[in-house]
């Protein structure tokens, strides 16, 4: 996963990573929000989900201490990272800003 993850975040397009866990209720809420964000942003950005229970080393590498944690990468650079549930409008604007 780590090699594939590096390829994904090295993209010219912004990539929003959703670090989540299947047992996490707020993560389920965030997931439905991200579906709408994807509709809003279209091809302007990618949205990738990373299960912290399946990839704990990846979560640790990026300092994920709680779920959900969202992070935006572009050209391999971490541009933004925050934990908690975020709304459709703020995430859509955030991705447009980096697109």
UniProtKB/TrEMBL annotation:
Residues 1-99 form the Thioredoxin domain. One of its GO terms (molecular function) is protein-disulfide reductase activity. Coiled coil: none annotated. Disulfide bonds join 24-27. One of its GO terms (cellular component) is cytosol. The active site is at residues 24, 27. Pfam families: Thioredoxin. The keyword Transport applies. Belongs to the thioredoxin family. This is Thioredoxin. It comes from Chryseobacterium oleae.
């Amino acid at each position: 996963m780590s090699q594939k993850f590096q390829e994904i975040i090295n993209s010219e397009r912004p990539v929003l990573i959703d670090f989540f866990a299947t047992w996490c209720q707020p993560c389920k809420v965030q997931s439905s929000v991200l579906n709408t964000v994807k509709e809003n942003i279209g091809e302007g950005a990618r949205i990738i989900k990373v299960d912290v229970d399946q990839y704990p080393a990846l979560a640790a590498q990026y300092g994920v201490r709680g779920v959900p944690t969202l992070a935006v990468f572009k050209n391999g650079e971490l541009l933004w990272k925050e934990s908690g549930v975020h709304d459709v409008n703020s995430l859509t604007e955030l991705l447009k800003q980096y697109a």
